[in-house]
Amino acid sequence: MNTPEPGAPTLVALQRRAIGVLAELTPAARELGEAFARAGHELALVGGPVRDAFLGRVSADLDFATSATPDQTQAILARWGDTHWDIGKAFGTIGASRRRGGAQVVVEVTTYRTDAYEASSRKPEVVFGETLEGDLSRRDFTVNAMAVRLPELAFVDPFGGLADLARRTLRTPVTARQSFDDDPLRMMRAARFASQLGFDVDAEVRAAITEMNERITIVSAERVRDELSKLLLSDRPRRGLEVLVETGLADHVLPELPALRLEVDEHHRHKDVYQHSLTVLEQAIALETGPDGPVPAPDLWLRLAALLHDVGKPATRRFEPGGGVSFHHHEVVGAKLVARRLRALRFDKETVQAVARLTELHLRFHGYGEGSWTDSAVRRYVTDAGPLLERLHRLTRSDSTTRNRRKAGRLSAAYDDLETRIAELREKEELAAIRPDLDGAQIMEILDIPPGPVVGQAYRHLLELRLDRGPLAEEEARAALLEWWSAR
């Protein structure tokens, strides 16, 4: 579908908004432009900060492109800033920061360049360019290929980025095939910007991704992980995830997600697990809290768990003789699949363990609605969740996507009741710090044994008693320990 050209009033309104934002550019950035001009070099504000100015946003960090070489840039920034760094010098980037009037200004200045991947390489080859227009041509999308020359504040838009921004469309400066051939990660960025900006992906761009999606496999897992994380942490991740699945990119970077599109049989014996998972993600996001709450938004662990909690269903689906469908132990299978995928994407160990654990526990609550849990069961629920309890609360609540209002009401009321009981037990028993009633030193003294594996076994036995029976007086715990020791 072709998007109509934006009218002149729309473009004028965008330009006025941008002028207002750019006028607020810190004097330090304007001074930087003057410093490069005095040295005989060009300098332009590029990419996201320019795009955001037209969207009425102020970017905290400023990205610049220059005709100067990295060595020349470093010399200028050493004089301009309070500190500077050259960690990206191999890619032509020098960074600096400067504090003026209580405000910290952080800049990165990159020499005009082009970079492209060899057919089988995981690292792009960097080649420095000579013109601003050439540098802009190598950028991912036209809305990111606009610039403002400094210090004169001259707007540069050789590829129609402003019109695409007005249309809210993602289009590439050169042909989409050439752009994605140069850097396959741009295909992931199309999905990410669809989520972050709420833009549509141009038909040519979508077709090129669909045709070339396998090329994403030459990109390092770490770079793919970072793009996926940015997408998930955006305000509208569903939009970008749909792009990944519909173009086939997800088949290579997150194959468990498209695998959830289970064929719905003619009797509609189960819901669409893929759509269900996207809805659970949206509902979990709605339950995130402000910065002072227990799960501040955006929370990557919760969002990953919400998206992937049912990935064990395809492998465990069984059609029952009576016409039903079952997914027995899909939470256990799913936890293993989640851990394997997140490790493949080079997520850190803590994230892998947390998301896998939430996946494993997400069904635990459903036994609560079937009958009254003992205090022991509530203690175990809290202990098993540990520091993930607040996320588990939100994941479990989000997992209810039924349109049956009566059923939804029952589930919500049951979970309200469970949370109330947790709060009551926590107040009485300090649930978050459940420990046996005797510590290791007391165990060794009572049993007259040295440190070793037996102490750990006794400790775990007392912990089980603590979970089952609640707090014990010291004499009761001592008697229980001696009874266990005698039975050995």
Strand element count: 13
Compute the number of structural domains: 4
Share of helix among residues? 40-55%
- Major sheet size, sense and barrel closure: 7 strands, mixed
Looking at the structure, what is the overall shape?
A: elongated
Enumerate how many helices there are, as a single number: 23
Strand content: 5-15%
The top level CATH class name of the largest domain: Alpha Beta
Roughly how many Å is the radius of gyration?
A: 29 Å
So, the CATH homologous superfamily of the largest domain?
Beta Polymerase, domain 2
Give the terminus-to-terminus CA distance. 76 Å
Overview of the structural elements:
The chain has 488 residues and is an alpha+beta fold. The protein is 52% helix and 11% strand. It has 23 helices and 13 strands. Strands 3-4-5-2-1-8-9 form a seven-stranded mixed beta sheet. It has a two-stranded antiparallel ribbon with strand order 6-7. Strands 10-11 form a two-stranded parallel sheet.
Top keywords for this entry?
488 residues, alpha+beta, Beta Polymerase, domain 2, Hydrophobic Seed Protein, 4 domains, 7-stranded mixed β-sheet, two-stranded antiparallel ribbon, 11% strand, elongated
